[in-house]
Design goal:
The protein has 172 residues and is an all-alpha fold. The chain has a domain of 100 residues. It is 64% helix and 0% strand. 13% of the residues are buried. This is DUF8040 domain-containing protein.
């Protein structure tokens, strides 16, 4: 066989393979999709996201430190602060749960799918609430924060020398 005949045969086989792929890919995508089929529930309702947060906060302190990178009393105080100043509102999902999955996402570098497994909500739910945290809550905290809302600062005679010299500022 000469080279040109071999090249033509090879080219024709490649074209046939391309035609086959144009037929197979749409068929495979239809088989994989659930068009018109029955939706299956992804998460069991044995433990809702609210129960997950409550379990983490009411259990051992180490659980809260690992999950949210803060102690439970600080978490609860922050949730109360957000509620008092109406930065986050209670809806179907309570403020504690919203704060919980926000802090979980930050502390574990989690994707929406990781949050779905942990807190049993949809991607859309996480997107909506996390977008609110980044667009409204964080800018509101950085511009309107008063440190005395979080910590009772010691007076000059009760505090240590470092705090009284710096005018009772918060230490790192």
């Amino acid at each position: 066989m000469n080279m040109s005949l071999r090249d033509r045969i090879r080219k024709r086989r490649e074209e046939e393979d391309d035609d086959m792929m144009l037929f197979l890919f749409p068929a495979l995508s239809l088989m994989g999709s659930n068009r018109g089929g029955i939706k299956q529930q992804r998460h069991s309702h044995e433990e809702s996201g609210e129960k997950v947060v409550r379990r983490l906060l009411q259990g051992h302190v180490k659980n809260s430190l690992v999950a949210f990178r803060m102690e439970p009393w600080i978490f609860n105080y922050l949730a109360d602060y957000l509620r008092r100043n109406e930065l986050v509102l209670d809806t179907r999902i309570k403020i504690e749960e919203k704060l919980g999955f926000f802090l979980w996402m930050l502390s574990h570098n989690s994707s929406y799918e990781d949050l779905q497994v942990q807190f049993h909500h949809s991607n859309d739910t996480f997107h909506r609430h996390l977008k609110h945290f980044f667009k409204h809550v964080l800018p509101g905290l950085t511009h309107n924060i008063d440190p005395t809302d979080f910590v009772d600062l010691p007076s000059g005679d009760q505090g240590n020398a470092a705090s009284s010299e710096e005018g009772n500022t918060l230490r790192d």
